[in-house]
Design goal:
This protein has helices spanning 16-34, 45-54, 60-71, 76-81, 84-90, 97-115, 128-136, 143-154, 163-172, 180-188, 195-211, 230-235. With 245 residues, it is an all-alpha fold. The longest helix is centred in the N-terminal third of the chain and has 19 residues, at 16-34. Bound molecules: iron/sulfur cluster (SF4).
């Protein structure tokens, strides 16, 4: 009896140069499909930082509602000093408020302690590596949140990897299968240090992930990346649901 064929593996190692070229092609395809995205801050830095913490597993409308309700508690010092249950109640439209409330308060306290104020303007000129470290040393801030803040608010050359960016790049084959955290470093190493370029690529990947290359049942028949997509080459119209692992 013959053994069953092993399931084809995604992303058999490609040289970095080839993956970098594939990323450039991908960016151009998405540009042709969705157009240019202009890099400009969507909200002030502290708003961006705290809202990104609130956004985990939460819709955009609920994230905004939670943020505005949080700000009704007072200024950042007042929010940091409020009873944690009050903060959790204020952000209840966000998922996991009991976990996010102490993280937000710890983040605020540490910013005040390290910086003396909530003005983050110094991040504009700090070396990128140091700015990423400064932010990710805060208790509630991971590499994605730090990268979003630095790229969106200060036009620094970093590349935020959210679930859509991670999924599409893994399926197409610009990165081997790896976690979202590791994908930040892997993708950034392949991309030009050009903030407008990085911003447009991030935003267009987000849109493509929401509308076409969804977590389950991606619409490969409508996809402008189909021609060079590893997952499509292997599975055709039956690309399986994406697993983070
Ligand atoms: S061809 Fe399918 S799996 Fe590949 S990027 Fe497009 S939608 Fe995603």
């Amino acid at each position: 009896m013959t053994a069953p064929a092993p399931e084809p593996a995604l992303n058999v190692a490609r040289p970095a140069q080839e993956r970098a070229a594939l990323l450039l092609w991908l960016k151009e395809q998405l540009h042709a499909e969705y157009g240019e995205r202009v890099l400009e801050p969507r909200r002030e830095p502290m708003h961006e930082l705290i809202s990104t913490i609130l956004s985990g597993r939460t819709t955009h409308d609920d994230e905004e509602a939670a943020y505005h309700s949080l700000r009704e508690l007072g200024d950042w010092d007042a929010i940091a000093a409020a009873p944690v249950a009050e903060v959790a109640h204020a952000i209840r439209r966000s998922n996991y408020p009991e976990q996010k409330a102490p993280r937000i308060q710890a983040t605020l306290k540490q910013i005040r302690e390290k910086n003396g104020s909530y003005d983050l303007e110094f991040l504009r000129d700090m070396p990128v590596k140091d700015a990423l470290k400064w932010l990710t040393d805060l208790p509630g801030v991971g590499i994605k949140t730090a990268s979003l803040l630095l790229l969106f608010n200060y036009a620094r050359p970093v590349f935020p990897v959210d679930t859509h960016v991670h999924r599409i790049n893994t399926r197409v084959g610009t990165i081997p299968r790896m976690g979202e955290q590791a994908a930040h470093r892997a993708l950034l190493a392949l991309l030009p240090p050009d903030p407008p370029f990085l911003f447009e690529l991030h935003k267009n990947l987000l849109r493509h992930g929401q509308q076409v290359c969804q977590w389950t049942r991606p619409k490969c028949g409508k996809c402008v990346l189909q021609e060079r997509c590893d997952a499509y080459a292997i599975y055709g119209d039956r690309v399986p649901s994406f697993s983070e692992k």
